[in-house]
Amino acid sequence: MAQLRNNAGAVLSRMDQAARNGLTAAANVYRNAVKRELAGGYTSGKFVTGHGINAVTQTAPERESGGLALRVGTNAKGPNDYSYPLGWELGHFNIFSGRYERVPIWLPALTTALPEMQAALARVYRRTMTEGAIPTLGTQLEMNPAASPEHRSPEAR
Amino acid sequence: MSTGSTEAILAVIRTRLLTFVDADGATLADTIGQRLWLYAPPGGTANQWPFGVLGFLPLRRTGAYNGERVQGQVELMLWSRPRTAANAKALEAAADRCEAAFLRWANTDADGLLFSRGGTRATLPVPAEPADRDTYAIRLTFDVIAWPQYLTQYHDR
User: Fold this and answer.
1) Nearest to A109, CA basis, from A56, A50, A46
2) Residues of chain B neighbouring A100 (CB-CB closer than 8 A)
3) Are residues A84 and B45, on separate chains, in Cβ contact within 8 Å?
4) Per-residue pLDDT of chain A (157 residues; tens, 9 = 90+)
5) Of A92, A106, A113, B88, which residue has the fewest beta carbons closer than 10 angstroms?
6) What's the sign of the alpha-carbon dihedral B129, B132, B133, B136?
7) CA-CA-CA-CA torsion for A40, A81, B121, B53, nearest 10 degrees?
8) Chain B hits for A83, Cβ within 8 Å
C-alpha cells in the first residue's frame, strides 16, 4: 500500500505562527516607544498620572483581508467617552490654557520606531521558523508492502 | 509657484484649496476666507472662525527614484465654532470642496511635478475637557507625490 504525504500543512502552520510572533514583537517595540514619549506628559509634565501610559494597549494578531493585522491604540477616555489622546494628537482648543494645543506623539513615535519594528519582526520571524524541529516542505511517498494483502507471505495470509 | 522647498509646496497646495471652484461656483475661501494657516493657527484666533490648518505628515523618499521622489500626506484640519448644525453643515460642505479640489489633481505648472490621488476624511468626535466642546472639526488627508525642485536640481550631481 502506498501513501503520498505532503508536509505543506506543517510548514504553513509554522509560517503563520512566525508571522504572529513577529507582528507581536514589532507591536511591542512601538508600544514601548509610545509609552516612553507619554511618560513626560503633553505639556509641563506636572499632570502626569500614569493613566495614559497604562491605557496603551494592543490586540492579538487577527486575520483580515488575506493577511494578519494587529492594532496598537489607547483605552484612555474622558467624559462622554472622549479620547483625550486623540485631542492632543490632532489638536484641540484647551479650555485651561486658552489656546490651540497640539502635541503629536503616536505618529512621530511610529516614524521613529519603524526601522526597529521591522528588524524585530524579521528577527522573531526567523527565530520561530528555525527553532525546534523544523518542518520541511516536501512530498513523501511511503510504501508499506506488508499492509497490502497481495504482498503478505503465505503464512500471514 | 515653485517646489523649491516644502513650504513652497504647501503654498501651492494652499492656493489650490482656497481657489478651487466647485460645480456650484463656491470656493473654500467663501467659507474660511484666507484663514488657512500653515502648521498652526496664530494666537488670538477668537472670533475668527471657521479656519483651516495645513501641514505635512511624515514624508519619505525611496531609493527607487534615486531619492528625488517625495511621497507623503498633507493634513488639513477644518475648524468651526460654535458647534451648531448650521456650522457643521457649512464645514462639511467646505470639506467636500477640498476633496473635489484634489480629485485627480496634478500641478505641472510648478518647477517640479506635484500630484495627488487618494486621501481620508473624518469628522472628529465631540470634544470634552480639557478640549473646548463647542468646536467642530474635520480632518482630511491627501496623499501627495512630488518631484520637488529642491531635490531634482541636484539630479546631475
Assistant:
1) A56
2) 40-41, 45
3) no
4) 777 777 888 888 999 999 999 999 999 999 999 999 998 878 766 666 777 788 899 999 999 988 899 999 998 887 777 888 889 999 998 888 888 889 999 999 999 999 999 999 999 999 999 988 777 777 777 777 666 556 555 555 5
5) B88
6) negative
7) -50
8) 125
Amino acid at A62: E
Q: All 3 cell numbers of residue A92?
A: 484641540
Task: Give the A-side interface with B, CB within 8 Å.
Answer: 78-80, 82-84, 86-87, 90-96, 99-100, 102, 107-108, 111
Q: Residue B140: which of B156, B157, B124 has the closest Cα?
A: B124
Query: What are the C-alpha distances in Å from A85 to residues A34, A55, A113?
Result: 12, 10, 19
CA-based nearest residue to B28, from B94, B88, B89, B74: B94
